[in-house]
Amino acid sequence: MNLSRLAGDAVQYLFVGIAAFLSVFPFAWMVISSTNTSIDILGGKATFGQAFAANVGNFFAQVDAPLVFWNSAKVAVMATVLTIAISSLAGYGFEMFRSKTRDRVYSMVLLTLMVPFAALMIPLFMMMAKSGLIDTHIAIVLPGIASAFIIFYFRQSTKAFPVELRDAAKVDGLKEWQIFLYIYVPVMRSTYAAAIIIVFMASWNNYLWPLIVLQSNETKTITLVVSSLASAYNPDFGVVMIGTILATLPTLFIFFVMQRQFVQGMLGSVK
Amino acid sequence: MTIARANGLKRSYDLNGWLFIGPSVALIAIYLVYPIFRSLYLSFYAGKGMMMKFAGFGNVVRLWHDPVFLSALTNTVVFFVVQVPIMITLALMLASVLNNDRLKFIGLFRTAIFLPCVTSLVAYSVLFKSMFSADGVVNASLLAVGLIGTPIGWLTEPFWAKVLVILSITWRWTGYNMIFYLAAMQNIDRSVYEAARIDGVPAWARFARLTVPMLKPVILFTTITSTIGTLQLFDEVYNLTEGKGGPSDSTLTLSLYIYNLTFRYMPSFGYAATVSYVIVIMVALLSFLQFYAARDRS
Amino acid sequence: MIYSRKGAYCALIGASLLLSTSAMAGEITVWCWDPNFNGAIMQEAGARYAARHPETTIKVVDFAKGDVEQKLQTALASGTTQALPDIVLIEDYGAQKYLQSFPGAFAALSDKVDHAAFAPYKVKLMTVDGTVYGMPFDTGVAGMFYRKDYLEAAGFKPSDMENITWDRYVEIGKAVVEKTGKKMVAIDPNGADLIRIMMQSQGKWYVDDQDNLTITDNPALRASLEVEGKLINAGVVKTLSGWTEWAGSIGSGDVATVMSGVWITGTIKAQADQFGKWGVAPIPSFSADGKGHASNLGGSSWYVLDASAEKDEAIDFLNEIYGKDVDFYQKILTERGAVGSLLAARTGDAYSTADDFFGGEKVWQRFATWLAEVPPVNYGAFTTEIDTAVMAHLPDVLKGEPLDDVLKSIEAQAQGQIQ
């Protein structure tokens, strides 16, 4: 191995090393800060302190953590199941049953990606209010079930779905919905895994729309609680850090558990 | 007989097509298309809160004379023009390094760099705010290393506030885009690279002449989604600046301005709707341009 | 149409039926921010009322302040009242905005509450066309909190801090920075808090009593901008961003003075390690004649939603506790540091007690005295917008651009915002 190649490797290591450090540092900061007092955190103290137990105690004294977690989980699971079911049907349908009209409808669907959410807020809220859904978790989920992005993602992935399988199934007399359910879904499971991660994370982390729709303490999700803690008259940053850790843990966990499926799913979508 | 059968097949094909996409199309019509038109309708009205009157193109005229709209527009364009290329380039470079089998611990690096995109906007903005506070850990480190002599006003000086917003978005999204490139690169046939290497093509040229052209569809896809994301930028600036877009409107984006016009200021729903249509038009134009540019070269 | 009018109507009726059964008779829902201040005080008020009226329960829901405002505005804008609480807390600066843009949304209280019993400046802020819409709550009567230890180190006695001018304040600031290395005051350039304090101390605001914009022809604003520019350019200011950092600068001991409303007392007293180190003086003035030392920052009031099913009960509740219960005001002062605007409350015992945290000074007494001197001003309906316009041009002031030009640009920007 020659010297220039070694030097090249060193540069590459340095590059990804710095990038990895910068990417991970805020997480380390979050963990370290959870053991410090509010003053130390804002003063830039980057070493472990002794305030962890106090911060945890204060957090659980101020927040009904199990309820808040249950709310977040409920919303995220509902959103994930419904979004994946409805949007994957459409992605499959747009690709498998192409026609001029449906292709036109598809381009319209893609156009909706361009509309900023800020433009939809007021009309959406009025609709939810008229249907009596304010302060319910289903109101958070409803507008996102048909997701243009997820439909696009499934349509792209469907291009890689072997048509022979479908033809064979047809010869065997399977109906279209049976083909979808018994052949497409199992074959595309890594695509589904990736979509599940994307939707779950987006929903768990969602902030603006839940903030508008939810009105009472009993329905609040974890992100709302964290932002509420961070904007009190006398916010305790140590307590806020406990909140951010708890808000981040589930998505972190899911990511680590399903990382492989995620990357495989991505591969499918860009082929 | 056969014609009838073919017709029956076509009908069943069509019926199935609509059945599969039906639920989604219906939901999109209710929860996206209807509100969009409702907003368009609102954009012709002006007034305080619910006291709205038909104003014709009054809101467009107001846009024209509104210095705040102008700075929101400028900021949004600056964020998009500066941030998207930086992030795409970084993500491409990281992906091509991580695509090198010779390096060890690739999985670890990849995981680390991807990690930021699991954080929620609230969590990550709280983290960044505390890290970039006047006496925060970032200023303290920079001072200790001797890179700066006085603390940087990350959130108090207009220029640095813009820098911080760009840093934040880049932190949150580079790894996300990188995964797309990495996935696409692993689909590229290795032998093409080997051949180029044997022919003596240097690494940077292999990157520029082989990798980038072959990734064009993915780069196009990520550029468009990033463009849409940056033009709609809201979460980061909202949480970093307590919803104000300060200091001195330096981080005010169009989406944040819409939010302010709706929720912080005397509510001007019609005017806010008008501003939101500016974003719609910009996104449409830019997406079209990017498609066009990508098509032209191939 | 997306769904039929009839269907929507049925859903609406269904929802209101559901709502009227689910909201039990006698449950009053209150929205506010800050669980340790407004929230806790409302709980206390609720407990007092419930003790006398067991059939009523007060349910306090707290969100971040921005969230309360945003939710209120969304619900009012959508024209649907079922999403709203019975009582909501609104900051005084925003009161006119809501009252003017959503007429009929809030219950008129003129005939139900004796508003003459409250500080006049508070009542003025909740009045539209002669009708009063709210129950005045806490005041933000302003004071200058200072670290005695820092100032002593710089060579100043507590008496040196009494009734000073802003120019003198800058002088003292320079000495403090030189001798102690601490800054004199913390300013968040995203917010116009100090400008607001300075302007109201001169009896002026961004608009006049007829809601006309007064920027270029406003000597009070000119003088305030000039002082803020002087302060920052003199290097005595710690600039930071956001409420959290600002409040943090008190706890970390980075600044020698805090210029704020009386409600900040709780935050200061929360710093147990700074016991006995703080003093209170009137805010500096623009003139040397001993006048213009009283001002205000923040403060908010309770409003009853007109569409509330529990409207009468909610009004009765507010009236009985906030309108009459002097003892209640003593308790929230002692426990939470809240100075109410009910004038009769000032004669209570708690107001004349000495506070050991401030070295035995009768701080509440002082604030109560200043409260009576706060010049009433009309905040108008556009404070947030004009604040933004003013602060957007602070960098120009710091660069030394002629103030008249700066005021002209501010006026141009504000004009574009307030139509």
Explain the layout of strands and helices.
The complex is a heterotrimer of chains A (271), B (298) and C (419).
Chain A (H helix, E strand, L loop, with lengths): L2 H31 L4 H5 L9 H11 L2 H32 L3 H12 L9 H10 L6 H5 L6 H11 L4 H9 L4 H12 L1 H17 L2 H6 L8 H9 L6 H34 L1
Chain B lengths: L1 H41 L2 E4 L2 E4 L3 H7 L2 H32 L7 H9 L6 H11 L5 H9 L12 H28 L4 H9 L4 H12 L1 H16 L3 H6 L13 H11 L4 H29 L1
Helix pairs in contact in B: 1-13, 2-13, 3-7, 3-10, 10-13, 12-13
Chain C lengths: L4 H18 L4 E7 L1 H18 L4 E7 L1 H14 L8 E5 H10 L18 H6 L1 E2 L2 E2 L1 E3 L5 E6 H6 L12 H15 L4 E3 L5 H9 L17 H15 L3 E3 L2 H10 L5 E5 L3 H5 L8 E4 L18 E5 L6 H11 L4 H11 L12 H4 L10 H11 L9 H10 L1 H5 L4 H15 L2
Parallel strand pairs in C: 1-2, 1-3, 8-9
Antiparallel strand pairs in C: 3-12, 4-5, 6-12, 7-10, 7-11
Helix pairs in contact in C: 2-12, 8-9, 16-18
Family (chain C): Belongs to the bacterial solute-binding protein 1 family.
Keywords (chain C): Periplasm, Signal
Organism (chain C): Pleomorphomonas carboxyditropha
Question: How would you describe what is shown here?
Answer:
Chain C: This is ABC transporter substrate-binding protein. Chain C: It is found in: Periplasm. The complex is a heterotrimer of chains A (271), B (298) and C (419). With 271 residues, chain A is an all-alpha fold. Chain A has a single domain, classed as MetI-like fold (Orthogonal Bundle). Helix content of chain A is 75%, strand content 0%. Chain A has helices spanning 3-33, 38-42, 52-62, 65-96, 100-111, 121-130, 137-141, 148-158, 163-171, 176-187, 189-205, 208-213, 222-230, 237-270. Chain A is globular, with a radius of gyration of 23 Å. Chain B has 298 residues and is mostly helical. Chain B folds into two domains: 2-42; 62-297, MetI-like fold (Orthogonal Bundle), CATH 1.10.3720. Chain B is built from 13 helices and two strands. A two-stranded antiparallel sheet of chain B has the order 1-2. With 419 residues, chain C is of the alpha/beta class. Chain C has helices at residues 5-22, 35-52, 65-78, 92-101, 120-125, 148-153, 166-180, 193-201, 219-233, 242-251, 265-269, 311-321, 326-336, 349-352, 363-373, 383-392, 394-398, 403-417; strands at 27-33, 57-63, 87-91, 127-128, 131-132, 134-136, 142-147, 185-187, 237-239, 257-261, 278-281, 300-304. In chain C, strands 2-1-3-12-6 form a five-stranded mixed beta sheet. In chain C, α8 packs across α9 (219-233) and α16 packs antiparallel against α18. Classes of the chains: A mainly alpha (271), B mainly alpha (298), C alpha/beta (419). Chains in contact: A-B, A-C, B-C. At the A-B interface, α1, α4, α5, α6 and α11 of A face α1, α3, α4, α5 and α6 of B.
